[in-house]
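Box 3.1. Reading complex inputs
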Amino acid sequence: MENLSGGDALIRALRDVGVKHIWGYPGGAALHIYDAIYRQDDVIHLLVRHEQAAVHAADGFSRATGEVGTALVTSGPGATNALTGIATAYMDSIPLVVISGQVPSSKIGQDAFQETDMVGVSRPIVKHSFLVTKAEDIPATIAKAYYIASTGRPGPVVVDIPKDVTEPNYKVPYSFPEEVKMRSYQPSDRGHKGQIKRAVKALLAAKRPVIYAGGGVVIDNAAEYLTAMTKKLNYPITNTLMGLGAYPGSDRQFLGMLGMHGTFEANTAMHHADVIFAVGARFDDRVTNELEKFCPLATIIHLDIDPTSVSKNIVADIPIVGTCKSVLKDMLDLIGQSDVQIDQVALADWWQQIDEWRNKHGLYTQPRYEQSGGDLIKPQDVVKMLYEVTNGEAIVTSDVGQHQMFAAQYYLFDKPRQWINSGGLGTMGFGLPAAMGAKLAFPDTDVACVTGEGSIQMCIQELSACSQHNLPVKIINLNNAALGMVRQWQDMQYNSRYSQSVYEESLPDFVALAEAYGHVGMRITQFDQLEEKMRECFAMKDRVVFMDICIDRSEHVYPMHMPGGSMRDLWLSKTERT
Amino acid sequence: MKRIISILLENEFGSLSRVVGLFSQRGYNIDTLTVAPTDDETLSRLTLTTLGDAQMAEQIVKQLHKLIDTIKVVDLTEGPYIERELMLVKIKAADNDTRIELKSCVEIFRGHIIDVTPATYTVQLAGDSEKLDAFLDAARAMGVMEVVRSGVSGISRGDKFIRSQ
């Protein structure tokens, strides 16, 4: 057995658990680890410009690939800077391992330089955390951390390592555990057979069914089974913001996204449904609107890996705890064997009703915004153009705000892991570093970060990391010179008092800024330049291109749930409502 | 309704703080909490009392179970159970009448006087929480100086038991 220092054992363990890339930022308490990184070639470290971005990049990498993302930060400010990234991953159930340096064991609790109780401050936003107390424990702890992060309902795991534990002169025998067994953690996998039977029975008996699929389907790589079942049943399906791509966005059976900014047809169909099959979704408040008024007619079948998600907000009539993949597979088998006939007349009527809704107020059939032209560039048209130019095949990341909703509504994601956004926490600054992570994983795929001039400035320093690591992402900046979503709410609820939501003349020259980082910058002010410039942008395969697009400053995102209403209570435009 | 929840927990760094943190994070109340290692010292046993309806109790149990360090979580109030709490009370007992009255009161509640000074009695009492409340009500008139309660420990009645295997 080889003897290794704690630092070397850590990097070796990362290699042995399958890690190829770490995003991070060095500092005092992590220097032994950084020296270990320097002395090997198996694990590549990518230096970012801010620890928040390290975690977001690891997160973007994980969302694009399904693998566990890894970030490494130092103690104190390094650790606290990572927290926003950790909380982002926690809310969206993304498997990450975040390793933080800690002050030496003897100094813990002494208010030492750059000391923060990382296990303490991260406790509510991690799936689990470890404080490693001796070098001997490193391989087993790393094995456990990756096992916990990636199994069950995935999530971020923090491993906090005091500096003395990675001390180069103290060497211990290294062995990596072949398997991880924990008596206190045995995630469930298969669903309860009886419940699955009941669910299939209810589903087949439905007259007005809707399948409501969320991020759990994407995370569990179950899109294939979801699609097969939906096709087989010919049932309508809607995806949550996190679930986009779990079912092909351009397919006829897809009603679009549901929820606060979901389509009229998806929200209205949910409201009238008699059976709702929720798959890997958690009845988030941005989906349900007022809980008391939620889907009054529906029998709720709820499949989720996490028992705490079931009957948390909406009581499930038929709960199933298990992985989306295994349960959908079991259900497909049962449906295949079943001799129960679906009421095709009722289903045809239901589809006719849905198509009527679609034709009346559909997002794609009835554009509710002015036509772009001249210096009027509508953000919706920019996203549609992006879809055209990238043939619908790009990986799209986004930040948070109006641009995020426009991207979710108008880029029709046909595949899972194509759409990467901070859904649960709503973290501005996520888009660019997440795009870096996705680009690292898929260098030959177009990666576009749809953002706004507000969000992009929250992690814009990473333009420098893009240069250093050759990550030619494209930035589609929907620039309306204001915090668009904040302003929209101020328009709707605060009589257009724009408290702190406008930048006036303070915005940087984004073209010059991009160029300062060595990238290509473009400013688009006329709609007729957009297509040509965007094609030019994506033709530059090996360059980061920052497209600063001056969009209509007055645009709002519609549809929009009316506060306190049911799912079907929507604003359809500034003047129309259901 | 009062719930008594029993938790078998890995006796590891930070595991208790995760349980306590969960309650504040999710907006649940903790009325009492007792914790100590078990006969197997790698494990801790917690008894926790809280107020909540059936749906909240179910969520609490599920959330506790979701913590990586928890091995078993049981809502004892779902079946027959026994609860015990220990209380130490220091009471003014300067004159003879009070001392006699207090002594008989302690006997009625099957407690013990475990420390005596010319001015005070210190009483030890064990039982369910209601019994301890009742004693305090009775003793209050005599002048209660200090009350220390351990919080509830609970165990299910009958053959059922909670262990790691």
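In summary: Residues 379-557 of chain A form a domain with the Rossmann fold fold (CATH 3.40.50.970).
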